[in-house]
Write a structure and sequence with these properties.
It is a single chain. With 445 residues, the chain is mainly α. It folds into 2 domains: 297 residues, no CATH class; 114 residues, Cytochrome b5-like heme/steroid binding domain (Flavocytochrome B2, Chain A, domain 1), CATH 3.10.120. The protein contains 18 helices and 6 strands. Strand 4 and strand 5 form a beta hairpin. The structure holds zinc ion (2 copies). The site of one zinc ion has 5 residues, from helix 11. This is Acyl-CoA desaturase. Its cofactor is Fe(2+).
């Protein structure tokens, strides 16, 4: 614990401790005022939009272009959230995207929820546990400092630099003074303006936006990719004006949307879209839906493959002994062996469970029942075909009965082994398979 003291960023800690403390004091001592409460809620949304639509989607990711009034609106709103200038914020955020889940990620999820939520802001960087002195990939030192990201576009943006250079007075005015002034001049509630619209609102804004770095890398699903920690969850989306669809966002960061389904909660997207309809925002970027769907499909197939792998399947041809017709005939006298589609099936245990009676199966021992099974007498169900495949014990040499003295009903007329209908050979449950590409499967490239 003592080792942490020299690493504490005093100013940030003070803001993050004093603000909620004063907010709590205000909650206990200042009378409720409806106008102040409504104003606080509006001011909360204003501050949140400054971070989500401004710092994040506009400045960090350039997901759209905004007119000067909207840029100014978002920079002032972002400053009212008192969490650094847009330039500082975006630099860290771009680093986070570039080095997600690595020691160079300023809010590396492997450091735990508390660190990614607030720790990274109140503590100066320290080497990640287990990190080596040098990063073999880049040669850069892993001294805990965030990896570099390019901010030249932001440094060339006059408004961003104006906000950066004058950040402290702007943030103080927007974050604390303005809410107090509005409630004081507006309806005489100076203290309510300061404590509710100022301190309490700011505390909520802080922790809601911090959730994007903490909770959105911890809670939820991975519908687009599961290689890294970002996740989608409705709770994170609700508290962050839509930023909780973080799995999508890390896959498609330049998309102005974080949620693409109409029913998903993403007010920041709605705000940007509305601005575009009013001519205040333009060049809204969207990732090609074809590529988005590939991500979704990959994850769905991954899940299906897990299910597929959890089932027991029949033996493949290569795993079965090849049996001659004569040997098959010999064995069929001792147990119920039925030939269907070139495969010999041991139906001894199953015969008693045959819905058409055991006799039919037992009488078929030693015979080729391909035609009968697939419709000659009764067309069996897909489930029956799947079950049948589990009884495979061998492959008949030549695939079909080849003896010339066999009675005609035993022989599938003019059938060569390679001609056996694929619908007969492959059980229905095996027709669609998910196969993983491996180094030896060149054809899947
Ligand atoms: Zn993230
Ligand atoms: Zn981002």
């Amino acid at each position: 614990m003592a080792a942490l003291v020299p690493r504490i960023r005093g100013f940030n800690l003070a803001v993050l401790v004093i603000t909620p403390a004063l907010g709590l004091y205000g909650l206990c001592t200042v009378p409720f005022n409806l106008a102040t409460t409504i104003f606080s809620a509006i001011f909360y949304v204003f501050s949140m939009l400054g971070i989500t639509a401004g710092y994040h989607r506009l400045y960090s990711h350039r997901a759209y272009s905004a007119s000067v009034p909207i840029q100014l609106f978002l920079l002032l709103a972002g400053a009212s959230a008192v969490q650094g200038s847009a330039l500082w914020w975006c630099r860290s955020h771009r680093s986070h995207h570039r080095y997600t889940d690595t020691p160079l990620d300023p809010y590396n999820s492997h450091r735990g929820l508390l660190y990614t939520h607030i720790g990274w802001m109140v503590l100066k960087p320290a080497p990640s546990p287990g990190s080596s002195e040098e990063n073999p990939g880049t040669g850069s030192r892993l001294d805990g400092k965030p990896g570099r990201s390019n901010d030249s576009d932001l440094r060339n943006d006059k408004l961003v630099m104006w906000q950066h250079v004058n950040y402290f007075p702007i943030a103080f005015f927007m974050g604390y003074f303005l809410p107090c002034l509005v409630a004081g001049w507006g309806w005489g509630d100076w203290r309510g303006g300061l404590y509710f619209a100022g301190m309490v609102r700011l505390t909520l804004v802080h922790h809601c936006t911090f959730c994007v770095n903490s909770l959105a890398h911890y809670l939820g699903t991975t519908p687009y990719d599961d290689k890294l920690s970002p996740r989608d969850h409705i709770i994170t989306a609700i508290v962050t004006l839509g930023e909780g669809h973080h799995n999508f966002h890390h896959q498609f960061p330049t998309d102005y949307r974080n949620a693409i389904k109409w029913y998903q909660w993403d007010p920041t997207k709605w705000f940007i879209w509305t601005c575009s309809k009013l001519g205040l925002a333009y060049h809204l970027k969207t990732f090609p839906s074809n590529e988005i769907k590939k991500g979704e499909l990959t994850m769905k197939m991954k899940q299906l493959k897990q299910e597929q792998d959890s089932l027991t399947w029949h033996k493949e041809v290569a795993d079965l002994p090849v049996v001659t017709w004569e040997h098959f005939q010999d064995q069929a006298k001792e147990r119920t062996l039925v030939l269907i589609a070139g495969f010999i099936h041991d139906c001894t245990a199953f015969a008693q469970n045959h819905p058409g009676g055991a006799m039919i199966v037992e009488k078929s021992s030693g015979k080729d029942m391909t035609a009968a099974f697939f419709g000659g007498i009764y067309s069996h169900s897909n489930a029956a075909h799947n079950l049948l495949s589990m009884m495979r014990v061998g492959v008949l040499e030549g695939g079909v009965e080849t003896t010339h003295d066999a009675p005609p009903e035993r022989v599938v007329a003019n059938l060569r082994p390679e001609d056996i209908n694929i619908d007969f050979r492959v059980p229905p449950a095996r027709k669609l398979m998910i196969v993983e590409a491996t180094k030896t499967q060149q054809d899947l490239q």
